[in-house]
Amino acid sequence: MTTTRSTYKCKNIFNFMKQKKKKLKEKSISIPIEITEDLAYLCGVLAGDGNINFRQEKYEYSLKCVGNPQNEKSFYFNIVGPKFKKVFGFTPNIRYFDSQTTFGFVVFSKKVVNYLTQFVGLPLGKKYDKLKIPKIFLGDQKLLISFIRGVFDTDGCMCFKKRYRNYPYYPVISFSSKSKSFTKEIANILKKLNFKLVELYDYQMKDERVKKGLTIINRLELNGENNLCLWMKKIGFFNLKNLDKIKKYGKSKMIAGGRFELPTYTRKNSLGVSRQFMSPIRKL
Fold first, then answer.
1. Which CATH fold would you assign to the domain 27-278?
2. Sign of the alpha-carbon torsion through 94, 91, 80, 277
3. Are strands 102-107 and 95-97 parallel, antiparallel or unpaired?
4. What is the pLDDT of residues 154-191, one digit of tens each?
5. C-alpha to C-alpha distance for 113 and 31, rounded to whole angstroms
6. Tell me: the pLDDT tens digits for 4-58?
7. pTM of the entire structure?
8. Where are the domains of the chain?
9. What does the H/E/C string look like for the chain?
10. Residue 177 phi, psi (nearest 5)
């Protein structure tokens, strides 16, 4: 009997300390007063890689944002984490998830979830039916561009195709989403910024992860040097996987021609080792 009471008491103390710690964490979170480019960029990242949920049975508010561990660890450690701290005042615990198949963070916070869903306008729960560009960013081009940069750093792709040659030389920036309406919104903004687009809607793509073997997606493509030069001038990338490709395949042709510039700067990676890498137009 004494052992049972003792165990029960320990559990109560543990739960009390857990709740107290949670409250302290909530108090340490700073909710943004100003709508900044960092907030807009982070919301673009969340529109791509993020999911915001509320579990009624556990009264649990959660924000999960994860990417590919093979090529996005640096992106989460050096870009997403610091941006999150600038916006909300703390750095989330960045690590592996889903049996080490994804990499990113999970934040349990009612404050953060309510701010992102009720004030900013990001969707709660399954996002693709409700995903759209938040209205608070539409009236300011800098905010809008930051949001789009975040979207393309997560759901976008930068590659160089061979086409008619035996080496990759032709730049293609692409974006794919299950949300048709969101893709059309992005397309309309890019057209206003004078990009030339290829638009594909309700496009069937092979996907072994689903029973039917096909996934219906919507896709935008920005093909050619002119689009890439305009992209680096007006929007740019923060994700190192995209910048590395430009450095590797595009440096000799594009930079030598003087059409756009990719300045270098030094930063520390997750292991504390400094490295130089290519950055778009401005420094972070």
1. Endonuclease I-creI (3.10.28)
2. negative
3. antiparallel
4. 999 999 998 888 888 899 999 999 999 999 999 999 99
5. 11
6. 444 444 444 444 444 444 443 565 788 999 999 999 999 999 999 999 999 988 8
7. 0.81
8. 27-278
9. CHHHHHHHHHHHHHHHHHHHHHHHHHHHCCCCCCCCHHHHHHHHHHHHHEEEEEECCCCEEEEEEEECCCCCHHHHHHHHHHHHHHHHCCCCCCEEECCCCEEEEEECCHHHHHHHHHHHCCCCCCCCCCCCCCHHHHCCHHHHHHHHHHHHHHHEEEEEECCCCCCCCEEEEEEEECCHHHHHHHHHHHHHCCCCCEEEEEEEEECCCCCCCEEEEEEEEEECHHHHHHHHHHCCCCCHHHHHHHHHHHHHHHHCCCCCCCCEEEEECCCCCEEEEECCCCCC
10. -155, 150
Structure tokens given for 246 = 């430009």
Tokens matching residue 121:
């306008």
